[in-house]
Amino acid sequence: MSVKIRLQRHGKKQKPFYWIVAADARSKRDGKYLEKLGTYNPNTNPATIDLNLDQTVQWLHNGAQPTDTAKAILSYKGALLKHHLDGGIRKGALTQEQADAKLSTWLEEKAGKVDSKKEGLTKAQAEAKAKALKAEKVANEKRANAAAEAAKVEEVVEETTEEVVAETATEETPAAEDNTEVTEA
After folding, report:
1. Which CATH number covers residue 68?
2. Per the structure, how many domains does the chain have?
3. In this predicted model, what pLDDT tens digit does every residue of 41-76 receive, in sequence order?
4. What does residue 15 show for φ and ψ, rounded to 5 degrees?
5. Residues 10 and 90 in one domain
6. Which residues contact 51 (CB under 8 A, 6 or more apart)?
7. Do 73 and 120 reside in the same domain of the chain?
8. Closest CA to 5 of 35, 45, 43
């Protein structure tokens, strides 16, 4: 029986969530599996991966072959490195303490890289938010200035209409008086 370490899809439409499982190569993608090794959630940034490292390495020792995507995930979490170091221990090239030290330093470096990426993402989000706020303030100022200009234009239009009305009223009044004088004569 050929065993594969692969992803089993769960979740809903457009929101995938995967289980990392050891399964018979002949079983369906979402079918029967031998053991659940962890989970993988690509919806978060960076992707969330929970993996039982010891069980995964045990399946690798027993000959399970990871698929391409599963191999990338196992490499990311250090399972393939631990499998490689265990091979060195079996051959006598390393001691268990040396292998554990190499694995722990690699895991610490990886955790540092992931944390720096998370910090970079939060900084980028904060910068984008600040930029959007600044653009909104500029747009509000433009809108306020345009409203003030429109109000000034309305005042000028009202003043000119009042002057025109006053001028026409003064022109009409003497004409009315002239008509009354003509009728008297």
Report:
1. 3.30.1320.10
2. 2
3. 999 888 899 999 999 999 999 999 999 999 999 999
4. -135, 70
5. yes
6. 20, 37, 38, 73, 74, 77, 79
7. no
8. 35
Tokens encoding 49? 């991966």
Identify the CA nearest to 67 among candidates 59, 42, 113.
Answer: 59
Give the domain range for residue 161.
108-175
- Residue 185 tokens, joined: 């004569």
> What is the H or E stretch that residue 49 is in?
strand 48-51
And the tokens for 121?
Answer: 């993402």
- 8 A C-beta contact, residue 81 and residue 106: yes
What is the rounded distance in angstroms from the CA atom of residue 176 to the CA atom of residue 157?
A: 28
Tens of pLDDT, residue by residue, the chain (185 residues): 689 999 999 999 999 999 999 999 898 888 899 999 999 999 988 889 999 999 999 999 999 999 999 999 999 998 999 999 988 888 888 888 888 898 889 889 988 888 888 888 888 888 888 898 888 898 898 898 888 888 888 877 777 777 777 777 676 655 555 555 555 55
Place of tokens 């722990």: 104
Do 23 and 31 contact (CB within 8 A), yes or no? yes
Domain boundary among 94, 129, 150: 94
Tell me the two tokens of residue 153.
């234009």
